[in-house]
Amino acid sequence: MNKEVRLGPLHEEEWDPEIRSLFERMGYETEDDLYNVLKTLARHPKLLKRWLPFANHVLFKSSLSPRVREIVILRIGWLCHSEYEWTQHVQIATEEAGMNKSDFTALEVGSADPIWSDGEKAALQLVEELFASKAVEDKTWKELGRYFSEQQIMDMVATVGNYTMVSMMLNTFRVPLDDWLERYGTF
Fold first, then answer.
1. Which domain covers residue 118, as residue numbers?
2. Within its chain, how far is the Cα of 31 from the centroid?
3. Does residue 91 register a pLDDT over 70?
4. How far apart are CA 29 and CA 20, in angstroms?
5. Global pTM exceeds 0.90
6. Three-state SS across 85-151?
7. Among 10, 17, 108, 124, which residue has the least CB neighbours within 10 Å?
8. Is residue 116 part of a domain?
9. How confident is the model at residue 1 (pLDDT cuts 50, 70, 90)?
């Protein structure tokens, strides 16, 4: 990210006691343990506290497989031009979903890339339609039903919504990449 940071991560000495307690309950002890997105949202403790349960569901407790979850997150991150989101989830997708460079290159293209299974293609079409028109077309809805349960489709829509919002915040605040994240792709 070449632009000047607007709202950067808070340093540990700047955390209010409520945020420190929240981070400790989440298993983080120092600022080095945390992603910059969390340290930046710590600037607004009430927002952070209310967003975290939803984000926790989307990332850790949804009905989606790790691979489909990451396909959805990465595609919306790419469409939103969120270098931070893309970079962070390339690492997560590699570690948790076994995804690789071919997958990431195909995600830049989207549902039109032939690499995808029919179910993955339907999930990508959902992302692309939600991004473009904020709704899913009947044809895509029917196709999704062939591969995913009602709850999985609901989780996909929730995932797109969450990561669109997070991408907007990251891009607007110009949150810098964490030092340990390796850039992947060009924005």
1. 61-173
2. 21
3. yes
4. 8
5. yes
6. HHHHHHHHHHHHHCCCHHHHHHHHHCCCCCCCCHHHHHHHHHHHHHHHHCCCCHHHHHHHHHHCCHH
7. 17
8. yes
9. very low
